[in-house]
Amino acid sequence: MKIIRLLVLSLLCVFCGQVQAADNIITMFGKDVNGYNQPRYYKSSTRYDWLDRFDIVAISDPDNFPWSSAEQGSVFVKIFEDLAQKEHIVVVFYYPGEGYEQSVDDFEKGKVKFMTKTNAVFGTYYENIPYSKNEYIYPAFFENNIHIITSARNNIAVKTKEDLKNFKGVYSADDRFSSFVLKDFKSLGIKEAKDYPEAYRQLLSGEADYVVGTYYPSQIELYKLGIRDYVVYSKAPVWKMPMFIRAMPGLAEHPRMEYLKKYLRSSRYKKVRDEALQELLDIYRENTKGIVPPTYVNTAPDKQEPAEDTPAAGKNTDTLIPDSAMPLSVNEKK
């Protein structure tokens, strides 16, 4: 039987003892990288001293940014630690691995395994699930924005969504999109590539005019491939995909849930979140220098000014956002 790994995020060090220096090291490209906020794994017997502790016990997709159990998962460690410190809300993650899809289906049908005591799913896009009594928690926890990515040597002019039909676009099967966005991709003729390397090979070899990709995961892959300087991003997202906490009725109606909602609306949360995400990009930028680009990149990149397209920058007022990409507001229910 596969053992479910438990990730407990908390500021209290009394239940983890002295933290080894190795906890802040990840292995990237065969070498150790220091200073990264790597998630730590604890046994389920971990004890807390708080009398007013409030738990969210969530299923998380081991492969889906930013909730993964891999190196990207540590993006939100700081956020959950801050949430624990400010509101005494403790987040516990279960990573069911290959059984993730079945675990989510069981969760939506109310078939929660006793051993997990799961009361939420993290990092879910808005989808219509008529047979489920579970609820989305507003506001959204994170917004996974989608940008148009083009070659630095062959930028394209797009004023409306319909203009994309005049160009050949691709997206990576490794990227995660909501069903609403995938429906738009189909109507615009945007094709699926098998993975990130193939999508960017098509772009930089001239087989495709643009790639559509989620902002942070796509940049990480570009750094890992050694081709970040060969592409440019749209200055604003074309689609916005809010990611939610989806909770069982007992959790959604809990009085202390208002504390979580208040935290998600706070400037404090946004500051901690933005710093954690920027740290992630900085780590990849610094530790992927010197990577030799693939052979299909046969010319030096043009010099480009950094795109002002960080979702956190507050400069996305000129973007076109299809209605189908946002069936509900990021912040409020209908």
The residue-averaged pLDDT reads 74
Question: Uncertain regions: pLDDT < 50 for 5+ in a row?
Answer: 1-51, 303-334
CATH architecture descriptor text of the largest domain: 3-Layer(aba) Sandwich
CATH topology of the largest domain: D-Maltodextrin-Binding Protein, domain 2
| Helix percent band | 10-25%
The CATH homologous superfamily of the largest domain is termed: Periplasmic binding protein-like II
| Count of structural domains | 2
**Biggest pleated-sheet summary:** 10 strands, mixed
Number of strands: 12
| Oligomeric state, counting identical vs distinct chains | single chain
- Helices and strands, in order, run as EEEEHEHEEEHEHEHEEHHH
What is the molecular shape? Answer: globular
Which structural class matches the secondary elements? alpha/beta
Task: Provide a count of the helices.
Answer: 8
Return Rg in Å: 20 Å
CATH class of the largest domain: Alpha Beta
